[in-house]
Structure formats: C-alpha cells, structure tokens
Design a protein that fits this description.
Length: 609
C-alpha cells in the first residue's frame, strides 16, 4: 500500500521530523565522534567503566545506551514463544535481526567513544562488549583484518552461550546451530564498524553436541549460498551495494548538517510523543498550552510549532509575563494611545497587534494578575483589543501559545487563575517532559551543545570523559535542558583547547556535580558515579556541611544511612519554607510557587511556628 503525500504542511513537516530522528542521532554521533573523549583503545576495563546504574530511575547505561537486565530463563521463554508462534525459520530471522540491530548500535557507540582507534582495535571491543552484556564468553581463534585491501577473516569459540543454554533447555540437542541472536550481533557489529557487509556463520554449536560454539565471519561475497543468511539479516544498507561493499567503502555516509535553529534534539519516547502532538496541532488554529518544569524547552517548542504552522511566514511575538511589572503589562500586551498617561507622547502597538496574523507566545502566563487575565480572556473570545487610553476596538487575528511551569488547575483552586481562561487556553495541552524522563537524549544533547559552544567560543575540547558521561546520565537535572546547556558551556570554557572535559570542569565554586548513580570500576566493582572513589562515596551519601540539620537528617533517611527520621515533618516543612523565602527575598507568592504550595499554605505554616 502506497501512502499518499500529505498536502498539510504541518503534518508533512511532522512526518519528516519523525523520519529524521534516527538519522539525527547517527549524525550527532558520527559528526562529533569525540564527544566522549579518546582515552586510548577500548580495553575490557574501559568498557566496564562505561556502565552506570541509576536505580532511583530504573535505568542502566552502557556506553551511553540504556540497557536492561533480563533473567536468562525469561529470555528463553520469549525465544520459545516466538518459535512456537512463528515457526523455527521465522523466529530465527526475527532474533537474528534483533541481534543485528544491537550489534550495529554497539559499533556506533564504540566508534564514537574511541574515535582514534583503528578497525582492528575497535572490532576487538565487540566481543568484550558482548561478554560484558552477559551473552557469551569469547575465545579468539583467529582474527585477520587489513582495511587497505578489504581483507577480513574472524573465527571465535563461544563458551557458556546463554542462547544455546536456553535452546537446549527448551528443545534439547539437535542437528542445527541455534545461537541466532548472537550471530546477528556479530554480523551487525562487524558490518557497521567496517562499512561493508560481513556475515558470520555458526559452524559448530553446543546445541549440536559440541563442547563450544564456533563462529566464522567473512565478507558476504566470500561465502557460498549467501541468500539464506541474507534472508535472516537486517542488511538493507549494504544490500543496495552491488558487491556488498568494497575495500574503499569504510566510511559512514555523511548526513545533512543540522542548522543552528534545528535544536529540537531527541529520540526518547517522551520527546517523540510531545513532538508528535506538536506537529499534529501545528496546522490548525487551535490555542496551545505548553506545560512542564522550568528549563524543559517550552519556548523552543513554541517556535517550532509556529514554524510548522501555516503562519510560519508571519510574526512570532513572545512575552515573558513574569518579566514585567503589573503597571506595564497591559500596555505591553494591548498597546498605548498617545496621552493615555504621563510620558505617553506617542501611540504604539502592543504585542497582540505586532503579532497580527501570526503567533503570540505568552510564557509564564500563571504570573498574570486576575485583571490582566480577564482582558486576555476577552481578546480570545472577541478577537479584538483596545489600547490603553483608546476607545476603538482593533480586530486582531492571533494564534496564542501559552506556557506555564505551574499546575493551572491547582492555581484555579487557589483562586489565583481564572477558570474560564484556563478552558480557553487548554484547547490543546502539550506536556513537555523533564530531562530526567528523557535520559536517552542526554548524549545527543551533550554532543549538540558541545558543537554549538565550541564554535561560539572558538575552543576545541577533546570531548567528554567516561565518568562525566555517567555522571550526567544519572544526575537529577533540577534545571532540565537549560541546566545541561549551561553545564556544557561552562565545561567548554573551562576545558579549553585539546583537553578532555571532566567533572572538575563542570564544578561550580568548588561544589562537585552531585550524581546519584552507581558505576563499575575498572576492576568490576560497584562504586558511586563521579570523581575519585572517596569523592564518589561522599557525593552519594553525604551533604554539604552548610546544609541545615533538618534537611541533612532527611537526606540521611532517604539515602538509607539512617533507619529512623531524626527530625519531625513539621520542622522539615518549616525549614523548606524559610529557605524558599530566603531565595525569593521574602516574596510569599514566589516562595509558594517554588515549593508547589499556595500562598495560604505558606502563611499557615509561618503562623504555626
């Protein structure tokens, strides 16, 4: 079935955006391959150090990729279900292609993390990585590679193959090899690394009664009867080449360079879901409400929505509602007639008029006073404004995009936001996820910001250290993407030319980056992520000496160091309230917003002291 091309510009742009997500990821990895730094060739110890556990988030990371632990028996059950549902041949093809994809992704990550390694050294990381992932114990029998003439031959023994164990447990011994996923992994890893189609075959298998599994890998054109192997592999990138690649085809294809304004970077499920919603609503005239924590990129989403809409050739006017005092806000929104007040020596249009025919982005709309809210509601209802001091209604054709980091329904309940305005704004809500819910995007964002700020400041750091990558993958990011952007810019400046960016370059006034992850040492032991062993332990279980006793008690309780909370909840609440008031200069409303409470709740706790 052929899909008809869409005449809807916003939907077409959305489809194109989603198609390019994987290409974007590959481009960021290849174009900025030194983002993780080049600390020599990938030894088993270096590969182990790329592992990071974030149990509080349910994440495990390996070379910047999210992984999962799965019982061998559960894997065997999945495998058995596939065989029984699809038949032996189709199940073999499916598992081989899954293995191919896993191998290809590992090859891309290893190439990015050790860009100075040659093909031979980088290829040797594949078996070590497969061992680290718990699939097999690899013994090298023979390995010959000469990229200059296109020669490749590889032979291994696989001991303790998990896939063979599970196949034997389900079906016993047979006459055919059964390490399908692992063969696919080896083929995908070698093919993606070398840029030509390499096919592995299992010549001996424990499922056939042999003491170990033996595999042999060669370029596809050197095998006889290759059609059966190709039917099971996901090798479309290589099958388009008439000879399955040649000796000179060892470089990955160049992708289009993303321009500086195409900064919507991500492949995570949460990011893709929000992007799909954005491109679905963009072609319409509907009012959009963007919600999410501070720093998640609401303004960027608003600009992207405008560019994907039919209004993209008209003005996009933005206003941060929290940046203006109440006395000036109405004039900024609706404009001023000459003589309306002292100093108004000329008439001037407001933001609604300047955005006529285009889009008006109202950021932090929850900070508007009830009076200003009522006037915006009238504009949305009537489609016309009156300037301050004016008597004539001026029609405006404006699409409104509003944004807030507060829960507007709670603001309505607290009497700080008009319920009718909420209904007007909430036509099509899009929630933008915090960075901690889209951690798969962190390596891509790191690469993007590194390239951006290196060009801006004329500096060329070597990239990121492994421990810095692990620390950022497991960091909580209270400031979201804005915080990550600032950290990388600080690191670019601190590291300078020719130096690997590490945790010390991101430290602020001597305060280290506080990660909550657990990693592997070079010896394979678990340890806290970031810094030297002692420093990492301190990051994981201690607080800065200047922290208030009540909050230190709470942290000790949450970290598991103390089984009993040594401070009452009332004391903790009161201390949090005082901290918020200190940071906001005594502003009760701002302190309440900071803590996710109402002004009345803050006042009540202050009176109860």
């Amino acid at each position: 079935m052929t899909r008809k091309s869409s005449s809807n510009p916003g939907r077409a742009m959305g489809d194109e955006f989603l198609k390019q997500l994987l290409s974007q990821q590959k481009r960021l990895i290849v174009d900025h391959a030194n983002q993780f730094g080049s600390s020599g060739l990938p030894s088993a110890e270096q590969l182990a150090e790329t592992v990071a556990f974030a149990p509080q988030d349910g994440n495990i990371w390996l070379c910047g990729q999210r992984m999962m632990l799965l019982q061998g028996a559960a894997f065997g059950a999945i495998r058995r279900e596939l065989v029984e549902a699809l038949g032996l041949d189709k199940a073999r093809g499916l598992l081989t292609r899954i293995g191919w994809q896993a191998g290809a992704r590992d090859a891309a990550q290893v190439s990015a993390q050790w860009p100075e390694g040659d093909h031979a050294s980088l290829y040797s990381a594949g078996p070590r990585l497969h061992m680290l992932e718990g699939m097999v114990n690899v013994e090298v029998v023979r390995f010959d590679i000469d990229s200059s003439v296109g020669h490749f031959y590889s032979e291994f023994f696989w001991h303790n193959s998990l896939e063979a164990d599970e196949h034997i447990a389900s079906y016993g011994l047979g006459s055919e090899p059964a390490c399908w996923m692992e063969v696919g992994y080896a083929s995908g890893y070698a093919s993606s690394l070398l840029g030509r189609l390499v096919v592995f075959r299992e010549q001996e298998c424990r499922c056939m009664g042999h003491s170990a599994c033996r595999i042999v890998g060669k370029p596809a054109e050197q095998w006889d009867d290759i059609d059966t192997d190709l039917a099971h592999l996901d090798a479309s990138d290589f099958l388009s080449r008439s000879t399955y690649g040649s000796a000179g085809e060892t470089e990955m294809a160049e992708l289009e360079e993303p321009s500086e304004d195409q900064a919507m970077v991500g492949i995570s499920a949460a990011f893709v879901a929000a992007s799909q919603q954005l491109y679905r609503v963009a072609p319409t005239q509907a009012t959009v409400l963007l919600t999410g924590e501070s720093g998640v990129g609401k303004e960027l989403f608003a600009r992207t929505l405008h560019q994907a809409s039919p209004r993209r050739h008209t003005p996009l006017v933005a206003l941060n509602c929290a940046a203006l005092p109440e006395t000036l806000l109405e004039a900024e929104l609706f404009g001023v007639e000459r003589g309306a007040f002292t100093g108004a020596d000329r008439s001037r249009p407001g933001r609604f008029e300047r955005a006529k025919g285009g889009t008006l982005f109202l950021d932090e709309i929850a900070t508007l006073s009830l009076s200003a809210q009522s006037k915006i509601l009238r504009v949305l209802q009537e489609g016309e404004i009156e300037r301050v001091g004016g008597t004539t209604a001026i029609p405006v054709d404006v699409r409104v995009i509003a944004a807030t980091n507060l829960d507007l329904r709670r603001e309505v309940e607290a009497g700080r936001f008009r319920e009718d305005l909420l209904y007007r704004l909430n036509v099509f809500p899009i929630h933008l996820p915090p960075l901690r819910e889209r951690r798969e995007d962190i390596p891509l964002l790191m690469s993007y910001f590194l390239r951006k700020f290196s060009a801006r400041h004329g500096l060329k750091p070597l990239g990121f250290s492994t421990r810095l990558v692990n620390a950022l993958l497991t960091y909580r990011f209270p400031g979201n993407i804005r915080e990550l952007q600032n950290l990388i810019e600080r690191g670019v400046i601190a590291a300078g030319d020719g130096e690997l960016m590490d945790l010390v370059h991101l430290a602020e006034a001597g305060e280290p980056l506080r990660s909550s992850g657990i990693g592997l040492t070079a010896e394979g032991r678990l340890d806290a992520v970031g810094g030297e062993p002692q420093a990492r332990a301190e990051v994981a279980v201690t607080h800065h000496a200047s922290v208030e006793p009540e909050l230190a008690d709470l942290q000790a309780f949450l970290s598991g160091r103390e089984r009993v909370l040594g401070t009452s909840l009332k004391e903790i609440e009161q201390r949090l309230v005082h901290l918020a008031l200190e940071r906001t200069g005594g502003n009760l409303t701002a302190a309440a917003q900071m803590l996710g409470m109402s002004r009345a709740q803050i006042s009540y706790r202050l009176k109860g002291e």
